[in-house]
Structures
1.
Amino acid sequence: MAVGVVGCPDRAPDDPRPSLRVRLPDGWKATPSPGGLHVGPAGRVVLTLETSTRPFPTTDELFAAVAREKVDKTQKLETPPLVGVRYRLSDDGAEGFLGARRAGPRTVWCASTRGVTADELDAAIEVCRGVSFDEDKS
C-alpha cells in the first residue's frame, strides 16, 4: 500500500507541491500530522515521519544524539539514502530507531515511538527506507 500526503509547512515558495509517498506493510495506516505522518498498525503509532529542508544528518550525528540517552546497545544503519541508529534503552530495554532519509530536496526524519516490538521496529525501518517524494502534477 502506498500513501501520499501533499504539502510541507517548510517548503520553499518556488518548489512545486511535493507529495510524500510511503509504502506501508499490510494492515498499517498513515495519519497526517503537522509536517508529516504517524504510521503503524491500525490503532497504534509505531513511527513518526517529519519532512524538512534542514541539512541531512550524518550517521555519527544521529549516533551522538542517541548516545546522550541511556542506551545499552546501538547499531548504525547506513544504506544511502537512509542513515539511522537502532538502539536499546538501558532503563527498560525498549528498542527504538532514529533515522533520516534523503528524498529529493527534502529530508524525512523517522523516529519510532516507545513500546514497539522488534518486528514492528523492523517494519518501521523499512517504511523509512521506502519513503519518497513525487512532485504534484496538478
2.
Amino acid sequence: MQKKFNINLDEKTKVIIATAVIVFVTFFACLGITKHRIRKRRDIHSKIGQESKKLILRDDIDKIESKQNEYVKYFYDTMDQESFRFTVSRLAREAGAEIISIKPFSRKRIANISKYFLKISLRCTYNQLVEFIAKIEKLPEIIKIEELSVKGLLNFEGYTTGDEDREKEFAESDTETMVSLIVAAYSTKH
C-alpha cells in the first residue's frame, strides 16, 4: 500500500516559504560578504600598522645615519694615519716638549672602526706635559690617552732655601721628566 504524500499549499504559504528562503540565502550571503570585509579590514589595519612601524624604523635609521655622518667627522680617515702622528708631534712641540720618539704601537679593528695606537716618549716639564694633554683634549677628533707614565726627575737641582712651598712649586713646574704615553685615535672608513 502506497500512500501519496500530497501537500496542498495555498498561494499565501508559498509566498511566505519563498520569502523565508530568500531571506535566509540573502542573510548568509551578506554574512559571508561581511566576514570577508572584516577580514580584509583587519588585513588592511595590520598592513597599515606594519607600514607605520616601517616608517618609524626608517625615520630612526635616518636619524642614526645623520648622527653617524655628524660624528664621522670626529674620526680620523683610515688613509690619513700620518696626519695623526703629525698632529701629536705638532702639539708636543707647541707645548715645548722634546719628542724622544713616536712609534706606531698597534691597531685594533671592530667592524669599520679602527683604533690606532702611538707610543710616544717625551722629555718635558710638568707644565709642558699638562699643556700637551690639554691640547690633545681640545682636538675635535676622538683621541684617548690609554697609558701614561712619568719617570725620574732630570736636572733636579733642588732648593735649599727652607721654603717648602717654593721647593714644591719648583718641582711641579720646572722639573724635567721622561714621559711615556700611549695615545689612541679612532678612525673609520667613510
3.
Amino acid sequence: MTEPREVTIVIGKRRYSISTLLDKPTFERVAAIVKGVSASLLKDGLDQDHLLMLTCLRLAYSLENTMGKLSPLVDVLENLEPWEPGPEPHDMAMPLVMPSLSATGDERAGGVPDEK
C-alpha cells in the first residue's frame, strides 16, 4: 500500500498542507482543476471562506452535471448483452484465394473479362 505523502495546494489566497495517497500526476490534475475554479472567483474580491464555499459548490455542480450527461450512457451499457470475445486474429483461418490459371472463354479468374 502506498504511504501518504505531504503536499501543498493553493486555493485562493492561502496554501494548505495536506497528506494524500494520490500519486503525483493525479494530485497535480486535481489541484489544477481546483486552482482553475478558485482563480475564476478571485477576481470577484471574495474573502477566503466565501471563495472556498463557492469553489466547492462549482465543483459539486460540475460533478452533478457530468453525472447527468453520463447517466444515459450507463443505462445503455447496463442493458447490453455481455460481450464474448471472438477468436484472436491469428487463430482465424483465412482462406487463401488464388486466381485460377485454367480460366477459359472471355473471362480471367476472378470474373473480369479479358481486354480485347
